[in-house]
Amino acid sequence: MVPTVKERLAAANRHIEANLPEAAEEVFRDVLQVEPQNSAAMAGLGAVLLQRGLMDEAFEALGRATSLDPKNAEPYRNLAVAYRLRNENENALVCLEAALSIEPDRIETLVTTGETLVAVGRRDESIAMVEKAHRLDPQSVPALIALGGLHTLGNDFAKAIACYQRALAIAPETAEAHANLAVLYATTGRPKEALDHAERAVLAEPLNPIFVATLAGALEEIGEIDRAVAMVRRMLVLHPQVIPLHCRLASLQLSGGAIDEALAGIARLLREQRSEPALLETMTQLLYRAGRPQQALAAARELMNVIPDAAIARRVEHHSLFLLGRHDEVWPARAAAATDGGEPARLEGARILARLDEAVPVLDALPLLRAVPILRARGADVRLLAPAFLAPLGSCLPDAGATAPNEASAEENQAWLEASEKISLTSLPDRFALGDDVLMSGEPFLVAPADKAAMWREALAAMPRPLVGFTWAPHKPGPRIEDIRRLLATTGGTAVSLVWDQNRPQLSLMPEAIDAGLHIKGLDDLVAATSALDAVVGIDGLPLHVAGGLGLPGVAVVPQAQLWYWRLGDDGHGLWYPSIRVVERAPGTPWESAEPLVADALAAALEGADARDVESAPAEPLDAV
Length: 625
Prior knowledge:
Helices cover 56% and strands 7% of the residues. With 625 residues, it is α/β, with parallel strands linked by helices.
């Protein structure tokens, strides 16, 4: 007996479920030979053609399907997907609106609509759409993943991570959730977790080029460059047109020291696709990481011509301008600001709430904390509003001129807030015309809390001097803890670990060191512990910034011409932290070549350490807001 049309359509759908799109296509075409106007067969054919990447044929079939059955939402949704693949998001939205008019509560359509609204800059509408999908089905993995993506765009990484973790609790093998978690963990400095989730994403979908690029990035973070390069090259054989693979390869090449090769590869692709955002972003980052701020600045501005609000472009632009000493282009108002008779303006009675935005990287903001005591010394009442973990730094800022009482009633605090000027911490130099001579004066701007500082001095009093605080890099290219151990073996005295994050367990490799991190519960503890030392050596991070803020001698081992706050002066000291000597390392430079330079810098920093007065004046507590 010849199979009926209904039986043939059922067989085609089974082929789709078994991931056999070619077989399903053949059955749909057989049905259409018999019934050219069969809307279900036409819609199914369009879907499998879309799955196979045959875009022109897919558009034709799906368009005919919508005409044959205007009440079927599925071909509209698939047409939207096709338009999105062509970056025609406005056309995609028209199709999605049609699909939603037929099935207003279809989770898949709501999620796709939310993602498309983001692409056209309508984020608020997108949030409403995805949240509706989540309310309709809190267990929907696609809705959770979409919600996580929206939180990521809003820089609310904690909520984004929670969404992806919830999705994995429901469906543990969801590759997209693993891949997105890998990216977030890499962004938030958790390379081990990033690698774990990237591995799981590739395990679930080993031929997905985006997931392979993510895994290669996680490997790059822990220094496994060769393995990552081999992985990306293999995938490029299968997917030579996938831009993220080329971008990842270039990043790996630069990390391995092949700077010219990395730049040439992306430049070649840019000649063919001049306005491709991913390529422009990669070129911007490569030039910045290569220590070429002038070229990075030009690339960042070209990227902003394509994507005006590109966060990476704005950040590289600011960093490059700082590295080039062109601060007035970041803070233009201060250049034009007039002062009374050439003297700094007095600010008696001014109330200023300096806000530290969570979207601003912490280390970018710390050097500008020096603006707070400067403004207080001029008579302003300045208070700091910061994320919870940074709040303890408030007790370490000297209160040289604040006039508000330390304890105020709720009514007084409210009145103060209403009368205050709210301004970003990073904008204080611009708003109040703080020049480079003030910001780079070298004056310490942190003071350890008296009671905690005394505790650390007493605890370390019997230890052999010098007391050298240290940090390390958990992975290659280092300096890893074994490199720091070898370095400090030549200085004598006592090594004191200031690491208090997830890398602290590595201290088992250096049992002779004092584990100060065990007792550091907040940034005020870190300031107090550091104040009791003679010097600090290590990688870019909070301990080196704290040492610089205290005016403590130290050595920072940092990437070459990348970090604006470690910009070098003529004498090898940092311009923003003059007590710190800076040793720069070019990409791919082995630790062994930098070690003698670091050893010499540390020896110079320790000269006269025995005579250093480590007494710290008490700090006034920052008024709570």
